[in-house]
Amino acid sequence: MATRGGDGTENNLGDVPSKLTSTDLYDRIAHNLFSVNMVWTLIGGFLVFFMQTGFAMLETGCVVPKTQPTSCP
């Protein structure tokens, strides 16, 4: 399987670490950093979305905090 090198040419050396050029390494590191940042952004977005949904359900009375004593007289 041919992989694209850092110079835009196709080669079969993509999986041999000793044969990678500095441009190839930079491209892989940049792609990994982008991927990690995207995953953390999505995870953070999902957490915020579901926290907001849970708070909305709490406010509308769909769920009741059973272990918390009431603070209203």
Structural commentary:
This protein has 73 residues and is mostly helical. The chain is 53% helix and 5% strand. The protein has one helix and two strands; from the N terminus they run E-E-H. The chain has one helix at residues 22-60; strands at 3-4, 10-11. Strands 1-2 form a two-stranded antiparallel ribbon. Strand 1 and strand 2 form a beta hairpin. The protein is rod-shaped and about 65 Å long. The model has no long low-confidence stretch (mean pLDDT 78).
Strand order of the largest sheet: 1-2
Strand content: 5-15%
Write down how many β-strands occur, each being a DSSP E stretch of 2 or more residues: 2
Alpha carbon gap, first and last residue: 72 Å
- Per the principal axes of the C-alpha atoms, what is the gross shape? rod-shaped
Secondary-structure class: mainly alpha
> What does the radius of gyration come to?
25 Å
Largest sheet: 2 strands, antiparallel
The stretches of 5 or more residues where confidence is low (pLDDT under 50) are none
Helix content percent band: 40-55%
Order of helices and strands: EEH
Summarize the structure.
By secondary structure, the chain is mostly helical. The protein has one helix and two strands; from the N terminus they run ββα.
Keywords:
rod-shaped; 73 residues; 1 helix; two-stranded antiparallel ribbon; single chain; mainly alpha
